[in-house]
Amino acid sequence: RSRKCKKGGVAVAKVGNKYHWAVGIGPCFNCDMEKECFPSEIIGACPKCDGDMFLINITSKNTRFLGCTKRCGHTRSLPKNGRLTILKKVCEKCGWRMIRVKEQDKDAREFCANRVCAQSSRQGSRK
User: Fold this and answer.
1) What is the pLDDT of residue 1?
2) Contact indicator for 65, 57 with CB cutoff of 8 Å
3) Residue 6 included in any domain
4) pLDDT at position 93, please?
5) 122 pairs with which residues across the strands?
6) 58 part of a folded domain
7) CA distance 34 to 23
8) Is the distance from CB of 53 to CB of 76 less than 8 angstroms?
């Protein structure tokens, strides 16, 4: 699916549920209305710069990860399998939003994607 650009009326490519600006797809790459047209769901603060981390989902490569809104190059990996849900609940240790992964025939797991946090994905709680 695509969406019409608010500035020029041209169709804009979308990857998953988010516009994927990191690879420069479509006419809105470096557009000043990018944040208005494609608001990102913020997970937490970027540890490398003063930006925020948000979910990037590349369906053609079956890849999903967290990237920085300031494009500093900082990323965090996420599990490839299962349904990912970004929860409203935040981590008590670092303030990042918690993520829930539900794999087929397995219990759901909630975790904080921040690697330096004590509640990282390796210690995620089963729900």
Assistant:
1) 46
2) no
3) yes
4) 86
5) none
6) no
7) 14
8) yes
Q: What is the 3-state secondary structure of 84-110?
A: EEEEEEECCCCCCEEEEEECCCCCCEE
pTM: 0.61
User: Which residue reads 């000043």 in tokens?
Assistant: 32
Instruction: Please indicate, yes or no, if residue 107 is contained in any of the structural domains.
Output: no
Across the chain, which has 127 residues, the per-10-residue mean pLDDT values are 60 51 49 68 87 83 85 86 88 88 86 73 47
Measured CA to CA, the distance from residue 30 to residue 54 in angstroms comes to 17
Residue ranges making up the domain that contains 35: 1-39
Residues in a beta bridge with 50? none
User: What is the identity of the amino acid at 57?
Assistant: N
Q: For position 3, what pLDDT does the model report?
A: 60
Number of domains observed in the structure of the chain: 1
Distant-in-sequence, close-in-space partners of 33: CB < 8 Å, separation ≥ 6: 6, 7
CA distance 89 to 10: 37
Which tokens sit at 44? 């937490």
Q: Do the domain assignments include residue 16?
A: yes
